[in-house]
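Standup notes
- HV: blocked on the assembly model, inputs below
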Amino acid sequence: MEVDERAVAADRDTSIRAGGAAPLAAPRGPDGARRTGTGAGLLIYLVLGTLFGVVLMKAQVVSWFRIQEMFRFQSFHMYGVIGAAITTAAIALQLIRRTGLRAGNGQPITIPPKEMGRGTRYWLGGTLFGLGWALVGACPGPLLALLGSGLGVFAIVIASAVAGTWMYGALRPRLPH
Amino acid sequence: MPVADVMQPWPWYVAGPLIGLFVPALLLVGNRMFGISGNLRHVCAAALPSRAAFFQYDWRRVGGWNLAFAFGILLGGVLVGLTIPDGAEVALSPAARESIGALGIRDFSGMVPRELFSWSSLLTVRGLLLMVGGGFLVGFGTAYAGGCTSGHAISGLADFQLPSLVAVIGFFAGGLFGTWVLLPLLLRGGL
């Protein structure tokens, strides 16, 4: 998951971590600077999330129909959205690196590299996710937007996704990474 | 039959850059890496009993921001959902409409086909496999791969991370197999 692994301090089982190299470092900053604030601190993320949900809905990337259209190569729309998103983010990351911009809390901005290891987790986990993506026609963000848009049955899909993640956690020591 | 409203999407060259901007926005606000599927893990850590080491961490500190972001996505869905007229259809390409029609879908209104995604469909083998099975694969796969479309395809590729490229190739391999093999079997197989 896109959890900052370095912040997941208790996740110490190096034998099964992809790459299995250095143990995870403790959260950084003498005052635990990566902490999440409460109340007002979370509000900005709530607002950003709401904007993100609006864009997902308006771009129709939440639509099962659109995902089918994408996997059948019958429209450029989804490829354009994803491609333009990657390009924009890549340019922004380069700008941040070159200008040495800092985060709002004064920390230098760093992006934790993902460890390749044998790579099994990426191709196998990715393929399993892709299967699910084609069936439900939505990845995790769109699932939430769909539920919000009034499709209550997506609560079941989301609950099932939580169960899938729980099962991965339980099986993790036995899976190849 | 009445002519349904057709919903044009925000064009890709508007929506794509807007989505991409969430990567620098989250980094600048709080040094957070854009990604959604981590929330599934945070929910497990917060609310489900488990002895697995994978869930033993301070979910409030690590994931509080992300859960707030996720709740926002839900609110965004509420806001836009209120503006969608009943029966409006996504503006699909004619080719997609034909292919999806060939799967037996007749109702093109809304964001998802109601014939497949509804409470009553949940009582059919087909609906159960699609919603519960598909949801499970999404949760299991993203946890295994360490990210979803946002974390790997957007954040990871934008940062030129090779593991993300491998994951995204996996996403598409699985998606193509699901679309071209599994879905036709499920939808036309009489389940």
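- HV (later): unblocked. Helices of chain B lie at 12-20, 22-30, 38-47, 59-83, 94-102, 125-145, 149-158, 162-188. Chain B touches chain A through 140 residues (CB under 8 Å).
- Next: hand off to the docking folks.
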